[in-house]
């Protein structure tokens, strides 16, 4: 329920045992190891050797494995993975067998060879098709292409001419004494053969170039165009047959795709260890791993290191100005809401983990925004199924489950069950309608559509409560740090100041005795002077009072913060109103076919399911986004300082497989 206490450690390992030690540390996932740039020992002992270099061979191997896996994907048996269980589950024996084979990369090399051959065949086939497409326009030619070469007395031009230039070309070529013959027309281009005497060939060539003439290329071809096209089609058939044979081999190799995936994950984790060792300060015989561990894990770390007779670990003090990484720890009931804190950013080590404080507010606000008991029940059912199937981090789903339960409660106290479906859609002569409606009314505290001001007051009250909670958290945090002046001047004065106005307003409205108004205003005046004089406590009095006046004006900003919580009412009523509109539409469609009532009921049921599903999806998204915004913009700034660096221990990461012993 707080920021985890961190301990800085120094692990010294003999070079012969450094790799094995890192493997053991990676298995436990307890230690964040600093590279040479961040390690204090590098600054204190600059003579230590640091060979930070890219592990090109290992990186290339990982990339080769990735490409091989992608190549085999279409040919491999379908993996038994889902969006909620994206990793392939294997046991430790399978994992060890895959990575310990005598020639573990033989499959990779075979896959690469096959992929290269298939790529070459496909490129060759593509070139053949392109050539066929280029030759088809010349198929009306019945003479061998080698006879289209220049003659003794004339030059021959064979190519394509845009249709818009054909007439101009014919006229000007005729003037030069050249002959023009059309072969065929396709795609707004005319295939033609032009013969010009040698003395006018140069001018004819210039003319054709100016008219966007594209010469035809028949290099390497002999015989007629038909003969060449026929040969090319035969070659395509041969290439297709070769590709079919290679595809069969690819399907055989695809059965071993899991082996490559295991190797990918293994070498990815090995790469992390190699980088950690290569970037650590070292001597000829020892490697120094400086890093951080949670205090509660230090004893476990000692035990792991003690298994290596050439290694030792000791506690060291952080360097001057060095901040430890941050990890937050909460009770399992609150832990799912760490997602919200992490989305905002980790707290600095001297700040507070806000998770335990935001959790109840987040659930309540989400419930009020969605505000429908039926939607809450549907969400809970869906999330229960997801939690049963999921083999990924379940924290976000548990958070949504708690929020769905709050939604069900909020809908019950406002009487919303799929909008007003109980009273709007169930026939009055059905006994179950009266039973359900009686239960709904008994659970309902108020109807937002009839009593919107109650919802308005509830939203403002909850908003004011959360803002006060933020100020009290900051106040007690300053007291814990023995910063009495900041606690009194920056929080306590504001708490008294704001509440004096609230009490005065309540007295004027008749909620409190009118005699309270004057004392409250006097207290507000005194706290205003305190804010004016002591909010800024450094510099000259002129600047202090000026900044104090600006801070005093922040009273208006607090009012704006409280008014931001009206969005709870707005979203709750919009979602409820949309649900009512869907029910009206369902009722109209259900009664649209009195002669065939079954058709109307079926269509109405479809509209009911689709309409409320859409409303549920959009309202859930809005509830999450706006509730999160209230935490980030209105609540956190009162006490929370973000910007802490995440605690990132060296641990195994898997992209494809999940190892279960």
Molecular structure report:
This protein has helices at residues 15-28, 40-44, 56-72, 92-99, 106-136, 166-175, 198-210, 225-254, 257-278, 298-306, 338-344, 355-370, 373-389, 395-414, 421-425, 431-443, 452-480, 484-509, 517-534, 541-563, 566-590, 597-635, and strands spanning 2-3, 6-14, 31-33, 88-91, 154-162, 179-186, 189-197, 214-215, 286-294, 311-315, 328-329, 657-660. Helix 12 (355-370) runs antiparallel to helix 22. The two termini are 31 Å apart. The model has no long low-confidence stretch (mean pLDDT 89). It has 22 helices and 12 strands. The protein has a domain at 143-223: 2-Layer Sandwich (Alpha-Beta Plaits), CATH 3.30.70. The longest helix is centred in the last third of the chain and has 39 residues, at 597-635. The strands form 4 sheets. A 4-stranded antiparallel sheet has the order 3-9-2-10, covered by helices on one side. It has a 4-stranded antiparallel sheet with strand order 6-7-5-8. The chain has a two-stranded antiparallel sheet with strand order 1-11. The chain has 661 residues and is of the alpha+beta class. Helices cover 60% and strands 10% of the residues.
């Amino acid at each position: 329920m707080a920021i985890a206490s961190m301990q800085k450690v120094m692990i010294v390992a003999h070079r012969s045992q450094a790799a094995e030690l890192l493997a053991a540390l990676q298995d436990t996932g307890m230690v964040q190891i600093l590279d040479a740039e961040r390690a204090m020992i590098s600054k204190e002992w600059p003579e230590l050797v640091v060979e930070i270099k890219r592990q090109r061979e290992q990186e290339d191997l990982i990339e080769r494995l990735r490409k091989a896996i992608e190549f085999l994907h279409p040919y491999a048996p379908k993996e038994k993975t889902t969006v909620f269980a994206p990793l392939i589950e294997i046991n430790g024996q399978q994992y060890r067998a895959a990575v310990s084979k005598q020639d573990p990369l033989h499959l990779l090399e075979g896959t690469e060879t096959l992929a290269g051959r298939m790529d070459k065949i496909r490129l060759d086939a593509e070139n053949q098709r392109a050539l066929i497409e280029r030759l088809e326009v010349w198929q009306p030619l019945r003479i061998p292409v080698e006879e289209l070469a220049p003659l003794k007395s004339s030059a021959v031009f064979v190519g394509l001419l845009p249709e818009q230039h054909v007439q101009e070309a014919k006229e000007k070529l005729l003037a030069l004494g050249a002959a023009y013959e059309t072969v065929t027309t396709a795609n707004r281009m005319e295939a033609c053969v032009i013969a010009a005497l040698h003395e006018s060939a140069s001018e004819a060539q210039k003319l054709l170039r100016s008219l966007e003439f594209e010469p035809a290329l028949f290099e390497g071809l002999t015989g007629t165009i038909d003969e060449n096209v026929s040969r090319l089609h035969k070659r395509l058939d041969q290439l297709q047959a070769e590709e079919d044979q290679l595809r069969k081999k690819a399907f055989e190799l695809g059965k071993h795709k899991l082996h490559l995936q295991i190797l990918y994950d293994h070498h990815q984790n090995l790469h992390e260890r190699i980088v950690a060792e290569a970037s650590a300060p070292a001597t000829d015989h020892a490697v120094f791993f400086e890093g951080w561990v949670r205090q509660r894990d230090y004893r476990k770390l000692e035990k792991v290191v003690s298994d290596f007779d050439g290694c030792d670990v000791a506690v060291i003090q952080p360097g001057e100005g060095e901040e430890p990484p941050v990890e937050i720890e909460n009770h399992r009931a609150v832990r799912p809401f760490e997602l919200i804190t992490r989305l905002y950013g980790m707290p600095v080590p001297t700040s507070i983990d806000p998770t335990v404080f935001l959790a109840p507010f987040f659930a309540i606000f989400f419930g009020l925004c969605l505000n429908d008991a039926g939607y809450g029940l549907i969400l809970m059912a869906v999330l229960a199924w997801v939690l049963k199937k999921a083999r990924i981090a379940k924290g976000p789903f548990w958070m949504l489950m708690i929020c769905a339960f709050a939604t069900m409660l909020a809908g019950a106290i406002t009487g919303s069950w799929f909008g007003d479906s109980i009273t709007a859609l169930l026939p009055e002569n059905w006994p179950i309608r009266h039973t359900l409606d009686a239960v709904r009314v008994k659970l309902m505290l108020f109807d937002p559509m009839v009593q919107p001001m109650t919802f308005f007051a509830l939203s403002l009250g909850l908003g004011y409560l959360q803002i006060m909670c933020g100020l009290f958290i900051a106040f007690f945090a300053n007291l814990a740090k023995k910063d009495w002046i900041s606690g009194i001047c920056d929080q306590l004065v504001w708490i008294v100041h704001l509440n004096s106005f609230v009490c005065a307003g309540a007295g004027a409205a008749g909620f409190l005795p009118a005699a309270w108004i004057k004392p409250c205003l006097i207290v507000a005046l005194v706290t205003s002077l305190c804010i004016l004089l002591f909010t800024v406590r450094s510099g000259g009095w002129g600047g202090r009072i000026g900044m104090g006046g600006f801070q005093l004006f922040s009273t208006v900003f607090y009012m704006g913060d409280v008014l931001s919580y009206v969005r709870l009412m707005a979203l709750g009523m919009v979602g409820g109103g949309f649900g009512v509109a869907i029910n009206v539409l369902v009722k109209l469609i259900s009664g649209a076919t009195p002669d065939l009532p079954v058709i109307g009921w079926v269509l109405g049921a479809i509209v009911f399911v689709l309409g409320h599903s859409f409303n549920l999806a959009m309202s859930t998204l809005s509830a999450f986004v706006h509730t999160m915004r209230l935490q980030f913009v209105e609540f956190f700034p009162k006490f929370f300082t973000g910007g802490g660096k995440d605690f990132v221990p060296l641990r195994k990461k898997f992209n494809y497989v999940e190892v279960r012993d």
